[in-house]
Every structure is written in structure tokens, then in C-alpha cells.
Write a structure and sequence with these properties.
There is one protein chain. The protein is elongated and about 65 Å long. It is 50% helix and 6% strand. The protein has one domain. The two termini are 28 Å apart. The protein has a two-stranded antiparallel ribbon. The chain is mainly alpha-helical. The longest helix is centred in the last third of the chain and has 36 residues.
């Protein structure tokens, strides 16, 4: 578990999640910026299913490796996510597949989930600081 740093696998998961949420935000912003560009294909960042496969359920104990010769942990690697073009154009006549209302709804949902992940990571860091401060007295 040492390869996850001080915050462990939970911290690595949250940091990876924040990176993916930021990537999704960038893709949504590009979609909105190109809403009036003829022929532009909207893009989506999909990572939720890959994230579920990459990390254990919360009730499962993490596996520890005491030697590099042990079998690798099947989860814990960062998830990259996949950017896909949306092929179904909305009926605007210019073959542009950006639906501005949907993009704004996606942006709002993504921002809420980003904020939640940030608060969760901040809480974990605060607990660690509290433990360090309590031990130094």
C-alpha cells in the first residue's frame, strides 16, 4: 500500500476521481464553446464503469503486499477514462451534435460531484493532520 503515498488507496482514488472530473469539465467546456460550429461532434468522457472495476467495494478489505514478488493488487491503478464523440446530431441542420441544455446540466452535475470529491479528500487530509497534531503533543 506504500505506493499510494500518505493518503493510501482511498486518497489515490479521490485524487484520480478529481482528475477525471476536471477532464470531464474541460470536455464539456469545449462542447459549449463549439455549440455553433457546423459539423462539430460533441464529446463525452466516460470513466464510471472503469472506475468501478478498478477499485474494490468499500466493504472489501484492501490487499497488502509485503514484497514486490507477491501477486499484484488487481485494483488501485489510476483510471484514464475514455473520450468518445457523440454521433447523434440534434436536428439543427448543421450536423452539430451539441445540445446546450444537456451540456449545462452535465456541467452542473459534474461540478457538484467534483465539489463532493474535494470535500471528501479535504476531510481525509484534515483527519491526518489531526492525528499528526495529536501525536506531537
Amino acid at each position: 500500500m506504500s505506493n499510494f503515498g500518505l493518503l493510501g488507496s482511498a486518497g489515490a482514488f479521490k485524487a484520480n476521481l478529481l482528475d477525471l472530473r476536471q477532464r470531464r469539465q474541460d470536455v464539456i467546456a469545449a462542447n459549449v464553446a463549439n455549440a455553433d460550429t457546423p459539423g462539430y461532434k460533441a464529446k463525452r468522457v466516460n470513466f464510471e464503469e472503469e472506475m468501478l472495476r478498478a477499485y474494490p467495494p468499500p466493504d472489501q478489505l484492501p490487499m497488502a503486499r509485503t514484497s514486490g514478488k507477491h501477486i499484484p493488487i488487481p485494483f488501485g491503478e489510476p483510471v484514464a477514462g475514455e473520450v468518445q464523440a457523440v454521433e447523434t446530431p440534434i436536428p439543427k441542420g448543421d450536423k452539430n451534435s451539441v445540445d446546450l441544455e444537456q451540456e449545462m446540466a452535465r456541467q452542473t452535475a459534474n461540478q457538484l460531484l467534483y465539489n463532493y470529491a474535494t470535500q471528501s479528500l479535504n476531510g481525509q487530509i484534515s483527519k491526518m493532520r489531526m492525528m499528526i497534531d495529536g501525536q506531537s503533543r
